[in-house]
Write a structure and sequence with these properties.
- The radius of gyration is 18 Å and the shape is globular.
- The N and C termini lie far apart (40 Å).
- Strand 7, helix 7 and strand 8 form a beta-alpha-beta unit.
- It has an eight-stranded parallel sheet.
- It contains eleven helices and eight strands.
């Protein structure tokens, strides 16, 4: 159970029809094809927060993964998020994603708060590892999102057979450092996902990144990552300064609207026809759309 997720791995969004009732497959295919065609994209991650995983049914999640698999070549891994209310649910989801073409699984924290019970969390990952042949990526949430594993527990989970990587999205540089120390020595890749703290997080360490921002600005993310890897501080700062207006626009309160804002950016670019989310998520208003377009212009990503 191995997978290489070094480099830049965008978490794709999922365009919907205008009423949010169905996936806009032509738009999704264009989005995935654009990402897969870029040399700077090393893998694609489906069924995460950016892909509105909680709003999709099991068949839709599998279809999104199928389309990602079709868009990519054999050297480009596809990782699918899996989420469920029980271990059995998540194993069943893993089977569906493997059949759909996934090369790995992003394990979204289950609804049951296993992060508060070490035995429950370890048992969950051990059972999941035994129940699937696919490598596992632990999704480390911000503490305010729920499901956040304490660093000491994260270190133990990272050493379970079958766990290949940790997607660390704590959005807190101090906590990120604690997680980094906790998993040091484990045979896993650390994937940075601190969207608003990318430069310091990349500087602290990480083999790659899983980012919803990379669904729209993969070239800038790759430039920043490569500059840090080559110790080119001036280039890294310049890339970070350029992307900052776009990052600020994506993560205005409420932060949970970020995936819809990303779809607005793709609509402005002409990649997708509609930025409509699936209800009950509210659409982005015209005034904010104008602000997003201005931020894209300021970051040079129009």
């Amino acid at each position: 159970m191995t997978i290489d997720l070094s480099g830049v791995n965008p978490a794709n969004v999922v365009p919907m029809t205008e009423d949010g009732a169905a996936i806009d497959e032509p738009g999704l295919k264009r989005h995935l094809d654009e990402l897969a065609a870029l040399d700077c994209v090393d893998g694609i991650v489906t069924n995460g927060h950016a892909g509105e995983v909680y709003a999709l049914d099991s068949e839709e999640r599998a279809r999104v993964t199928e389309l990602a698999d079709e868009a990519t070549d054999d050297d480009t891994p596809v990782v699918s998020g899996v989420v469920g209310g029980s271990t059995a649910d998540v194993i069943a989801a893993a089977d569906r994603m493997e059949a759909a073409g996934a090369d790995g699984l992003l394990v979204v924290p289950p609804h049951t708060p296993i992060h508060t019970r070490e035995d429950a969390a370890i048992g969950f990952f051990e059972d999941l590892s035994a129940g699937t042949d696919l490598p596992l990526v632990i999704f480390q949430h911000p503490h305010w999102a729920g499901g956040n594993y304490p660093p000491e527990l994260l270190g133990k989970l990272a050493r379970i057979d079958g766990v290949a990587a940790v997607k660390d999205a704590v959005w807190d540089v101090d906590h990120f450092q604690e997680d980094l120390r906790a998993i040091r020595g484990a045979d896993v890749q650390l994937l940075v996902t601190n969207d608003e703290h990318l430069l310091p997080s990349f500087a602290l360490g990480g083999e790659g990144t899983i980012l919803e921002l990379a669904a729209v600005i993969p070239e800038l993310i790759a430039e920043l990552f490569e500059a840090v890897e080559s110790s080119d501080v001036a280039r890294a700062r310049e890339a970070y300064d350029r992307m900052e207006p776009f990052i600020d626009a994506m993560y205005e309160p409420p932060v949970s609207d970020s995936h819809t804002r990303l779809k607005v950016a793709l609509e402005i670019r002409g990649t997708i026809d509609s930025a409509a989310p699936r209800p009950p998520t509210a659409p982005i208003g015209e005034a904010e759309k104008a602000s997003i377009e201005a931020a894209m212009d300021a970051s040079g990503v129009l």
